[in-house]
# Entry
Amino acid sequence: MIVVENTAQVHNVVVCTLCSCYPWPVLGLPPVWYKSSPYRSRVVIDPRAVLREFGTELSEDIEVRVWDSTAEIRYLVLPERPANTDGLDEGALAGLVTRDSMIGTTRL
# Structure
């Protein structure tokens, strides 16, 4: 498993274009949309449009990187820390993290 970090300059999103490679032992069962052909093909071609459909609007100065999982390598997104969370402890921060943020379709 490889973890890629979202930052103020880079937003990462994960897909498996050939099948539905998904880190289910970590994230649970995959959402139906993750395994769908439209998601798998469109997120590679036009990731910003797909992210907008999830409510994730990114400015043009943010680079979008798409990571293609395989049977051998699974990717997981480390979400960017939300603003105004400096006082939160590890448990409180972990409570903010969602499955979709670890796939990269949403931000915290």
